[in-house]
Amino acid sequence: MRDDPTLVALVLAARDGSQAAWDQLVERYAPLVYAICRRHGLAGMDVDDVGASVWLRLVERLDTIREPAALPGWIVTTTRNECLRALRARQRTIPAEPDERLAADDPPFDDWLVAQERGIALRAAFAGLPDRCRQLLALLFADPPTPYSEISATIGIAVGAIGPNRQRCLDRLRRDPALASLLDGTEVAR
Q1: CA distance linking residue 62 with residue 70, whole number of Å
Q2: Which of 179, 183, 168 is CA-nearest to residue 124?
Q3: How confident is the model at residue 187 (pLDDT cuts 50, 70, 90)?
Q4: DSSP label at residue 37
Q5: Which residues of 26-46 are buried (b: 16+ CB within 10 A; e: fewer)?
Q6: What pLDDT digit, counting tens, does each position of 161-181 carry?
Q7: Is the peptide bond before 108 cis (omega within 30 degrees of 0)?
Q8: Coil, helix or strand for 13?
Q9: Using N-to-C axis directions, what is the helix angle for 131-140 and 148-155, rounded to 10°?
Q10: pLDDT tens, residue by residue, 128-138
Q11: Rg (alpha carbons) of the chain, rounded to whole number
């Protein structure tokens, strides 16, 4: 398990009563809770009920989490347990092997969780970049790609300066502590 300094700081601040930290935790992990609910075949109000239960349990147990960096695993386990509880309440048959519900070509759940964590870290690191870097990278990675001449006119830099500026922005992104802790030898797209 890697220590994500941003996550540790958010958990500690939320323990101390910071509403902003709590909101960031919920925003950061709500997609994970939703995805686990969907993998269990839940929809609509069942997803809302499970989400509410997970966040209530986290409020009740936030002080007992010894390793703040372990919060994603705690959320996964708690969400899975709440999904199973919701399924039992609806008197559905629960498969003996949870992986039977997944397609054979689905990657292992841990891979999916790591990908989600990387995406969260990338969005957080991107948000921490200066405005000019965010604007440049957004234009460069737009779909469809923005022509260099248009980027030059929009941002106000020479076409020949776009590549070097892109490299500096990506280097800055790679150095972000939250993202660097999750890269694990892989790199952000060049």
Answers
A1: 12
A2: 179
A3: very low
A4: H
A5: eebbeebbbbbbebbebeeeb
A6: 999 999 999 999 888 887 776
A7: no
A8: helix
A9: 160
A10: 899 999 999 99
A11: 20
